[in-house]
Amino acid sequence: MDSRSVSWLYAFSVTMLSALGSALAANNYYCNGPLVAALPPTSFESSSTSSSSQSSYFAKLNRRDGGGGWSPRATDGQSWLQVDLRERVEVTAVATQGRYGSSDWVTGYTLLFSDTARAWRLYRQEDNVATFPGNTDTEGVVHHKLSHPIRTRFLRFVPLDWSPAGWVGLRVEVYGCAYKSDVADFDGRSSLLYRFNQKSMSTVKDVISLKFKSQRADGVLVHGEGQRGDFITLELHRGMLALHLNLDDAKLHPSSGHVSMTVGSLLDDQHWHSVLIERFNKQINVTVDRQTRHVRSRGVADSLEVDYEVGHQPDARPGKPGTFLRKNFHGCIENLYYNGVNIIDLAKRRKPQIYSVGNVTFTCSESQLVSSTFLSSSGSFLQLPLEPLTEGLSVRFQIRTWNREALLLSAPLARVPERLVLLLSAGQLRLTHHRSPLQRSDIAIGQSLSDGQWHTISISMRGLQVSLTLDSDPASTMELRDPAQPGSSILFGGCPPASTRDNCRNPTMAFQGCMRSITINNLPVNMLHVQQGLVGNHSQLQFDFCGIRDRCLPNFCEHDGQCSQSWSTFYCDCSGTGYTGATCHNSIFEPSCEAHRQTGSASGYFSIDPDGSGPLKSTLVYCNMTEDRVWTVVDHSSSRPVSVHGSTLQRPHVSRLNYSASAEQLRILVGRSEHCQQEVSYRCRKSRLFNTWDGTPLAWWLDQAGEKRTYWGGFLPGVQQCSCSLDENCIDMNFFCNCDADRQSWENDTGMLSYKDHLPMTEIVVGDTNRTGSEAIYMVGSLQCYGDRFLWNAASFYQESSYLHFPTLQAELSTDLAFYFKTMAPSGVFLENQGARDFIRLELSTSSAVTFTFDVGNGPMVLTVKSPLPLNDKQWHYVRAERNTKEASLQVDQLPLRFLEAPADGHYRLQLSGQLFVGGTTSRQRGFLGCIRALSMNGLTLDLEERAKMTPGVSSGCPGHCSSNNNLCHNRGKCVEKSSGYECDCTHSAYGGPHCKTEVSMSFESGSSVTYTFQEPFSVVRNKSRQSSAIFAQSSKSRENVAFGFLTSQAPAMLLTVSTYHQQYMAAILAPNGSLQIWYRLSRDKRPDVFMPRPYSLADGQLHRVQIHREGKDMYIKIDRDINQKYSLSSDKELNTIRSLTLGKVTGRVGMDEEVIQAGSKGFIGCLSSVQFNHLAPLKAALLNRGSSLVSVLGNPSESNCGILADKTSSRSQADHSEEDGNGKERLKNAEQSDSAVIGGLIAAVVLVTLCVVAVMTRFLYRHRHERAQPMAPVKEKEQQQQQHVLPPPLESSRRCVATADLDLNLHSAISVRDTRKEYFI
């Protein structure tokens, strides 16, 4: 070969170096011809036949001769019918029929296919469903078009179910067409090299396609590279297809354009897999079988320059660099196309563009490795005999599984009960020599053997030594005391049911996986003889088939959850994601600050997730709850005043505001809020906002969409205006802004932006500070929003035929539905969405039951939660339903959560097509009568009010006192509708009183304690206690909300501890120096997390309030009003199955650390007030449930007003301190103060004091007369509130003025907490 030929040989290499692709050679658009009708009798085989007239040859569709079809023996437990199509063809459809003139037919079957009739593969339809529906009679033909065609020679029909009145009967037909292919076989040392027509080839578009069948898990399929560093490599790595691509010059841009990705799994299964690679510029699409991944190169270049090839035999091509050291491919490649060129066809015709290295043949040699599948984790086993008088024992076999625990081998030895046992334990091999029930020795090797890869295991017993070898690792040995001889048989995978004689028992579970290449004493086991019953014994084995399946492909774990699997299911690890649930679908965070207040939280930093289970992550905000409105505060990176000099319109000052939330998170947060605002403090000196001659903006800002805005105040977007023009108080009325007066003095154009669609401000530009003495100082405040407009978004349905309709629910793989409802009707459909066959429905099925029904193709699935109390009681009830690929769940109020597991191999895509009906159905029957509010689906809340405005029979909002965000009940109190008013149910609140605002306190003496014992999970499931079940449901998440107040002078002290049945605990203690410490031990094998937010003593005789809020690994601690800190725990595990909560002295707790035990032994002396743990208020529980088995009281803790009394001394200063600014940030203030403002303030103060004095006197006279008119009687909170509620308006307003002066009187009126469980209003 001349040098010129060699130069353009440098090109593209197919290594085993082999290649990719799958160009479908069968280009027949009408590939549906019958393939079975003309086959000879020798093409049919079966597992058995019941008689000669019912042999497999009579199994042709519509055939009536013989016995009218095929039927197996009645004793055939694994029957099958096999068809040999004589050559590889393309199969597009199958059809079945029952046996003519009988009661025999097949109602369900699976389809296996193979090229060799030895290694079979299961055909799976969409959703990975393997079962085909069969017949319902003998003559009907059931036709199934395959969702994806297959190319095969052999088909096997495996009946699963049959006629209930008869037996298996089958006639079949297969439809398709001929299939042409070009195949090359590579032995691991051979390759094909494709040469371009020039020295190098530069392309911006590449298409590579192929099919391959591999005998190894590793090997290079395609490789090409160029002189400047470009390369493309396609290889198998651990059974996955990996693509490596670089488009950039390696010297100029090292690794900048390098892309690596993997697709597929278990591709070394000796079956054909199709590959398609498409590249256009930087965009790359890779498809393996039916899975596609998209990736984009990060480099600079768009073209791929290939001119060098590298193989595993670099010496075969003179002058080529030998840098590529990966393994070559061992297997077959079919129809390899590179940019339209059929590489294998050129090689077969010996074209000069192809150079062959090693032994490349053009027929596919088949592997002799045949697998068997152990199907059951409890009943599978294979028992093989051993030759008598055998000296020693050697066993070798290969396994492939996902399970971490299994019995692999049990070999009884000659001396009973001596035996060898090989286990898979936590993914590790463990070989044990059992000499007696109490004497054993073992060795353990390897790790992660449950990785789905093939592993080779060898055991050898010779003389006094037993050795164990894994793969190619060195052998590990174990010494025996005496020489041992094998018994008469050996067991693989499990133990037979009656195996007590051999002392064989499955320690945990039998082997569930694939096994092949079994040799005993160097003799291979003939599995065909085992299958035919000629050798050994077996149960629940499937021969000539490896049924392993990657259940993490595709990955159904959402929000970056990590997928792991066993043989039969998958699991999602949601650690650190901020989500929980079977598929990490549910956010652990509340959607808004308003929702946090509903849970009883106070001001502080919280993570919120405005889109719930949607794609966006949570974000950290400050929730200011010191006012009636709850403000959400989002900070940004430029919160300090900025001084600007020397800017012009051509070279302006530009400042980008980077928020603690992403743009999309901010958009959803603002859209969810009722009102948002952002203050812009702007002071200027000889610096204009607008050009006074032509109005050109000299300063502006960008809104959330990046649009330019030139207004500087107000809630309506205007043009070129400031707050002073809106208020009509600009210093020069000829201008719309103070700064435009262009004065030498400092002027102020501070304004509040409040048009929601434009917030937040993302950039500010200042351009007029380049003149002498010109300067501007600005500061952009935090984004502040209040209200959750979706929390009370409601609609009322008052006609049974009325409904609201919305676009189709997007619920293919997972969906969650949540809402509140109240009604007096006994039943009704909340919502329904239907498809061609699938549907989803939520309804009030009876007056005390909610039912969730859906069908994804496996038949209707029904979940029902029954309440011990009626749900049509005109009160708000909460419903949450979720359905994903793993399970479905239904929650009603705080009743136990109900679950329903999805079938392991069933349909999982919920395909809906019609509109979503809310409050009714498509038939307009069984409609809902009542109110629905806060209806959210997959994190998005539907605007019921807006849709109700245009729908007859439905109205916006919902009547009643408890139907709006009016904050009637505080601190977790629940508003309950009454016929003539409402009540506050304070059951789950740590407070009492009319609005759940009255402190509940207890005084503790030395040795006193209060312990609340949580009911065990089985009690909760039986729904013995609504309260305990609520607590259990809440504690099942890695979330805690803890709040309490305390007053003490003693340290160390135990404030609160929570312990579980799994030796976990959480504790709040005072250390010996009086500092507060929070302890968390979530794992027994790890050290606890300890946090000390305040280093100095809190045992100072003052009342201190503590709030602890945990969500996963994030924990927020707030002490009084001056400490608010965030910490990170080492684990996000939940407190699993809580045992008890104790206040005060703790004794005898196992698993607690020494410091906590010491504090627990000291107990607590002082006052504990308003203690809350999630939904539990232990102080109230102790006072209301004395004598209950759930509450244990030691010593003499007593009800007290200590919390209220201690709180009075600091109430004024704390209120004044907190009202000014919830987020603690200073605002820009004007240095100049006018005397008129001071005088005005003094006058206002005098007037206020005068009004308060008059109000106090009026109230005193009114009460004095009222008390004289009624006899003295014990006053309870409910009665007092009834009196207060009928006060005239002047007296009601005066009550606020005299609140401080009248504290003692109000204190004595709250006599007993027991009477404040529910407070009624008229």
UniProtKB/TrEMBL annotation:
A GO CC annotation given for this chain: membrane
Is-annotated flag, keyword DNA-binding? no
Q: Where is the composition biased (Basic and acidic residues)?
A: 1214-1229
Native organism is Alosa alosa (allis shad)
* PANTHER family membership: CONTACTIN-ASSOCIATED PROTEIN-LIKE 5, PIKACHURIN-LIKE PROTEIN
The record, for SUPFAM superfamilies, names: Concanavalin A-like lectins/glucanases, EGF/Laminin, Fibrinogen C-terminal domain-like, Galactose-binding domain-like
Domain of life from the UniProt record:
Eukaryota
Q: What is this protein called?
A: Contactin-associated protein-like 5
Domain (EGF-like) ranges? 548-585, 959-997
Q: What exactly does this protein do?
A: May play a role in the correct development and proper functioning of the peripheral and central nervous system and be involved in cell adhesion and intercellular communication.
Report the residue ranges that make up the Fibrinogen C-terminal domain in this protein.
584-636
Task: Check the UniProt entry and state the signal peptide residues, or none.
Answer: 1-25
